[in-house]
């Protein structure tokens, strides 16, 4: 990690800049819960263990709100509700309710919905109505669709969706979940949504197949970006994709790479000891295009060790990852690489995604909004590796969560201003029950696996704070 040569901002300056990790790094750990502001910063960073240990003795509301977030994240629901019942009796709780609802929605959606009913009228926004409707629509089937339809009308009228969709485009996806039953209807809402981000329209590949990420493509042929076709073959982008039993998705995923407007790419596909037909399918696609390189691992190591292995084979000036069950929009690589080409002070870019299930319904872990930052979308310059590698690893050798750690480490090393976020849905993610985020043993719905993820999150947060301290002293 490069040494800082500028004067380290003071504790209060770091707080003003919302650099909470840097602020806590200037304090001994035992002081992190000594004020309500510090407890709140811990909650914002996902450092929940000190909050659980300190508990809440009925002091400031902000301390109580931070404690509730920690209880909710760790699945301590009974205690969480008890503390909330005490907090909502406080006269100044309304100031913190919107934030608390957003945070609770990540881990305890029913409680977040319940808390919405305590909001004063002045704090009740279109987001809260959308969240209530999105929550009701989760688990919609053909049998209960009509019942869900009328339930949603309690919170959201059609005119509300239309009048607010310019400011909140995700309302169009909510209305699709609510109103659309045919491919034509679903395309109408999706393409209206795309237009908000200046992205081309989609079309359905097969009218008789499900409306999902496998059955969508852009309407018209995408141009080839001239910069990606220069004679010197500069500006190559290496796309790292790990694959384990992805036979249903891998053909669509690989073809989405080959159809990119940015032609100068190489796809490093690491087969993590798949036991299905994934490897054969990938080889069929690779025969048609030499830009795909396949690495087969005899033993399953997990996606992040596999990515580290693939990184050794990457030759691009820019590097990005992509999941094997997700579809890359044809403009994704171009729209993430161009800011790096135009601004040499930028070290990386990221982008958003939306997740869609096999029935054409959109999904988000916190119910709404649907567009979220894609944790695997970090595109970075090759030369940053000399500052980022740890024991020859870029991604920490764990089963889940290393993408988030890498992104935060990038911000620590190069600064927030060195990463530009492209706020467009450049990836269509497949929402499926057996994915890493949703599977029984690794997903966020299981309390045990969620706690393991949280413990890893806190572990690397503490490591980052120690990195900051070493750089300071």
From TrEMBL:
Domain Glycosyltransferase 2-like: 238-357
UniProt keyword Iron, yes or no: no
Transmembrane segments: none
CDD domains: Glyco_tranf_GTA_type
Recorded GO MF terms: glycosyltransferase activity
Name of this protein: Glycosyl transferase, family 2
Keywords of the record: Glycosyltransferase, Transferase
SUPFAM superfamilies from the UniProt entry: Nucleotide-diphospho-sugar transferases
Family in the record: Belongs to the glycosyltransferase 2 family.
PANTHER family, per the entry: GLYCOSYLTRANSFERASE, GLYCOSYLTRANSFERASE EPSE-RELATED
Pfam families linked to this entry: Glycos_transf_2
Organism: Psychrobacter nivimaris
Gene3D superfamilies: Spore Coat Polysaccharide Biosynthesis Protein SpsA, Chain A
């Amino acid at each position: 990690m490069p040494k800082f040569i500028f004067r380290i901002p003071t504790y209060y300056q770091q707080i003003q800049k919302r650099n909470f990790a840097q602020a806590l790094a200037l304090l001994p750990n035992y002081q992190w819960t000594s004020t309500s502001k510090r407890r709140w910063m811990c909650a914002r960073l996902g450092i929940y263990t000190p909050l659980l240990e300190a508990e809440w003795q009925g002091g400031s509301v902000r301390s109580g709100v931070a404690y509730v977030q920690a209880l909710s994240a760790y699945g301590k629901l009974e205690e969480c509700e008890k503390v909330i019942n005490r907090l909502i009796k406080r006269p100044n709780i309304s100031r913190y309710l919107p934030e608390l609802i957003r945070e609770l929605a990540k881990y305890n959606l029913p409680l977040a919905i319940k808390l919405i009913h305590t909001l004063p009228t002045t704090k009740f926004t279109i987001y809260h109505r959308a969240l209530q409707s999105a929550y009701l629509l989760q688990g919609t089937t053909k049998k209960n669709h009509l019942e869900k339809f009328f339930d949603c009308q309690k919170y959201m009228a059609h005119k509300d969706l239309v009048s607010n969709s310019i400011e909140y485009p995700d309302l169009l996806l909510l209305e699709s979940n609510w109103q659309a039953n045919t491919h034509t209807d679903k395309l109408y809402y999706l393409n209206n949504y795309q237009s908000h981000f200046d992205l081309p329209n989609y079309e359905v590949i097969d009218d008789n197949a499900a409306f999902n990420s496998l059955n969508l493509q852009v309407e018209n042929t995408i141009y080839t970006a001239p910069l990606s076709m220069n004679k010197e073959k500069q500006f190559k982008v290496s796309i790292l994709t790990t694959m384990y039993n992805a036979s249903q998705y891998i053909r669509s995923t690989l073809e989405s790479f080959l159809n990119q407007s940015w032609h100068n790419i190489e796809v490093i596909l690491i087969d993590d000891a798949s036991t299905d037909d994934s490897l054969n399918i990938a080889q069929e696609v690779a025969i048609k295009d030499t830009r795909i390189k396949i690495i087969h691992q005899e033993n399953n190591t997990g996606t992040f060790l596999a990515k580290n292995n693939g990184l050794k084979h990457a030759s691009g000036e820019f590097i990005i990852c992509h999941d094997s069950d997700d579809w890359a929009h044809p403009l994704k690589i171009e729209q993430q690489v161009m800011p790096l080409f135009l601004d040499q002070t930028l070290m990386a870019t990221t982008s958003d995604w939306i997740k869609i299930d096999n029935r054409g319904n959109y999904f988000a872990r916190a119910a709404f909004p649907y567009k979220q930052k894609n944790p695997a979308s970090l595109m970075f310059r090759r030369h940053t590796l000399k500052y980022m590698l740890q024991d020859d690893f870029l991604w920490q050798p764990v089963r889940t969560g290393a993408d988030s750690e890498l992104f935060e480490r990038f911000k620590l090393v190069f600064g927030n201003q060195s990463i530009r976020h492209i706020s467009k849905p450049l990836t269509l993610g497949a929402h499926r029950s057996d994915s890493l985020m949703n599977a029984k043993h690794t997903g966020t719905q299981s309390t045990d696996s969620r706690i393991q993820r949280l413990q890893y999150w806190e572990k690397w947060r503490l490591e980052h704070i120690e990195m900051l301290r070493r750089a300071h002293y």
